[in-house]
Amino acid sequence: LLASACLLTLTACSTPSQNKQENKPKQTQSQGQNKAKEEKVKTKTFSSAGSAGTVTKIKVYYLKDKVTAFSFIQEKEIPEEEKDKSREELADFYQEDMESSSNFEAVNNVKGIKIEVRISADKKTVQQSVTFDLTKMDVDEAAAAFGVTDQKGTIFERLKDKPEDFFEAIKEQGLTEEE
C-alpha cells in the first residue's frame, strides 16, 4: 500500500518548473568555503490526510543546493482489535503488509533505499516508510526502482533542481508543509 502511494505521488504530473531568480547578495569565495564546512542537513516535512485516518508524509533531507534524501511515510491508526498484540507482532504484521506490495521486491533490492516499520510505544499508530538516500544512489536509480523510465513531468525530474523546486513539486501534489 505504501509503495503504491509513493508511486502515485512520484509519477503524478506536475507543472513545468519555473526558473526563479533569487535576490540574494553574492558571497565572496572565502565566505562560501566557511559556510560549506558548517552546513548541516536540514529537514522539511510535508503531509496530506487520506482516507480512514491515514496520513501520507514526505520528509525531505537537504542542503542549500541539493536534496540528500527523502522519505515517504504512511502513518495510520492501529485498529482496536489489533492492539492486544505485542509491538513486535504488530511490526511483523505491517512489514508483511509492505512486502505484499507489487513494487516491494524492486524497491527492497536497491542500494540506498531503506524500508522501515515503526509502531508507537502506546501501540496507537504505525508508520511505514521508504527512504531514498541520494548520497548512495542517484535520481535515475530511484526512479527506476519504481519503474519510471521517463521522468519528464514527474517529481523525480524536480529532484535534480534546487530543494525549493522539489518542495514546490511536493506541494503541487496536494501535500502541505508541516511547522
List keywords for this structure.
globular; alpha+beta; 34% helix; 7 helices; 179 residues
Give the structure's gist in a few sentences.
With 179 residues, this protein is α+β, with helices and mostly antiparallel strands.
Rg estimate, integer Å:
18 Å
Estimated share of beta-strand residues: 25-35%
In which range does the helix fraction lie? Answer: 25-40%
Low-confidence stretches: 7-31
Q: Outline, from the CA principal axes?
A: globular
SS element count, helices: 7
Structural class based on helices, strands and sheet pairing: alpha+beta
Mean pLDDT: 80
How would you characterize this protein structure?
The chain is of the alpha+beta class. It has helices spanning 2-11, 29-38, 87-99, 104-108, 139-145, 155-159, 163-172, and strands at residues 42-49, 55-62, 67-77, 113-119, 125-133, 176-177. The protein has a six-stranded antiparallel β-sheet with strand order 4-5-3-2-1-6. β1 (42-49) and β2 form a beta hairpin. It is globular. The model is unreliable at 7-31 (pLDDT under 50).
